[in-house]
Fold this protein.
Amino acid sequence: MNELSMDRYDFYHWMQRELESDLKQFYKRIHSIKVLNDKFYIWFLSNGDCVSIPLNIMRSIYVNGKSTENLVALIDTKYVARIKN
């Protein structure tokens, strides 16, 4: 596997495996996490609520130190904006 493939693998592994356990420390009702159509999705147990984040934003968070706190702030902002509309 070349370096580019490993970086892509590590990025997807981080999103689909590591983040789930990290995010469950902040959100107790996560149903699932998936990557679909160039977006990172988080589904919550309550009423099938979902938040999506474009992969370029996820890549930026990954490259800049994998800050769970930054991701949580982004999720909170997107979720609150979605339920207010």
Summary: The chain has three helices and three strands. The helical segments are 3-23, 55-63, 68-84. The chain has a mean pLDDT of 84.
